[in-house]
Recover the amino acids of this structure.
């Protein structure tokens, strides 16, 4: 169990809800229907290249440990679980050139947030984010939190192995009936080993 302490700036609202837990590749600007359709077309167009890069095999990952996106645990803004590929082959990392092709296609289409234009691909699962903090009337919104105790107890925790079934183009702030982000488009990853 994580620590809840308003003295440390840690409160329930900064934790990512289990229903919306996901791996982030990059953030897109999808503020209207045309941009959403363009992003969906970009994702669909690169599907065969991604499947080839994954050698038509399933993608399994392990989430292990915690890291800060920027800064230090004493003044954390975003805490995430880094992604490790299971099997030692690092097929997901070999697929990164194709993920970079996806990223570049989104950039060329003008769909990427300015903050992400020059950032290196960092697959991660955000667990805590100070931007999600719900401020109370009359109180100043705190933009960081002290995560040192969390890192002390959970910094090397093995969060488990997961099969990744698809790449999902999610629309922020819009949710489907199941509570997860609205799916604008998706491309499936192989579910089982394909034999030649």
């Amino acid at each position: 169990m994580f620590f809840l302490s308003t003295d440390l700036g840690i409160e329930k609202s900064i934790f990512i809800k289990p229903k919306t837990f996901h791996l982030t590749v990059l953030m897109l600007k999808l503020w209207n229907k045309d941009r959403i359709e363009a992003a969906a077309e970009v994702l669909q167009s690169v599907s065969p290249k991604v499947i080839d890069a994954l050698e038509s095999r399933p993608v399994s990952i392990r989430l292990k440990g915690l890291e800060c996106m920027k800064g230090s645990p004493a003044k954390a803004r975003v805490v995430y679980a880094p992604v490790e590929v299971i099997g030692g082959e690092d097929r997901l990392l070999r697929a990164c050139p194709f993920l970079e092709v996806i990223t570049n296609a989104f950039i060329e289409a003008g769909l990427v947030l300015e903050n992400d234009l020059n950032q290196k691909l960092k697959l991660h699962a955000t667990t805590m984010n100070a931007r999600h903090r719900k401020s109370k009337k009359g109180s100043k919104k705190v933009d960081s939190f002290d995560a040192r105790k969390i890192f002390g107890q959970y910094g090397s925790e093995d969060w488990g192995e997961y099969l990744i079934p698809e790449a999902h183009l999610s629309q922020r702030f819009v949710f489907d009936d199941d509570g997860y982000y609205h799916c604008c488009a998706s491309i499936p990853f192989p579910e089982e080993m394909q034999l030649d």
